[in-house]
Structure formats: C-alpha cells, structure tokens
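Sample intake sheet
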Amino acid sequence: MAKSCTRILGIDPGFGTLGYGLIDVSGSKVSLVGYGVIQTKPGEPIPNRLLKIYDRLHEIVEEYRPDEAAIEELFFFRNVTTAIQVGEARGVVLLVLKQLSIPIFEYTPHQVKQSVTGYGRSEKGQIQRVMKKFLGMNETPKPDDAADALAVAWCHISFRRFPGGAHR
C-alpha cells in the first residue's frame, strides 16, 4: 500500500543558529509538523559546536522520521570565516541525512524566495508572513532561521509538484 503522506524536513544551515522545519504533504494538503533551531554557543570549541549540531539533528530526524530533506545551498559570504563555519555545519547536516538514508535535495536562496514569495530577493519579514499564511499558523514563525527552514521545505514541495530541483 502506498504511503499517503510525505514528510519534508527543511534546513537553513548555520553554525551559530541552524533552522529546521517539518511539513507534511498529502496530495494538495500541506500541514505544519514543527520547527525550531539548533543553537551553538560562541566561544565554544568548533568541534564541540559541530558535534552539538550533529547530535541534535540526529535526534530530530529520529523523532520526526522525514521522508525527504531539503537544504539551502550556501551563498556568497563577505566574511570568509563565517563561510567556512557555515560550510562545516552544512557538511555535518549532509552527513547526518546521508547516514540516516534521507534523500537530500538542495535549493539556492533565490529558488527558495522565488517559490515562496514569487520574488527572488524578498526580505526575511516577507518570508515569515507568507509561511504563516501558507501553513495556517496563529503566530509568525520565529526566529528567521526557523522560518527560512520552513520556506526551504515549502520550496521542495513546489519542486516536487513541478520537477527540476537538485538531488543528491
């Protein structure tokens, strides 16, 4: 018997704050499962921060059992140190998902914004308001990282309906 519902995990990669959001999709019905952030403390050794991301994301995947994961690709950073740290955190995310056999799909920030708002340069507040409306939420999803993760999941849903997204 075919599974009637697909659970999507959206991830907005970050080193200090990593956003995640889970959405179920069944036919044309989309429902919010949950969202939040994984935070690491500045000043803590980098390996410890990466381990915290690994452990917490592993717990989230084990708890919610997503069928697919969508992750935002890195974009240009002016600060090289920040880019390296986010890249390391993103690598940890990819590792967890691959270890747990979750199919991974990647989208650019432009693709995410375009799929959610229809405009590839929309602002954070607009993303939050649209996600609140699309998911029938009573409150605006916060912080930005969690709202962005929901937007990444929403983007993946759009690409599932109209194929063309990148798959790993």
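Comment: The chain has one domain: 20-167. The longest helix spans residues 80-99.
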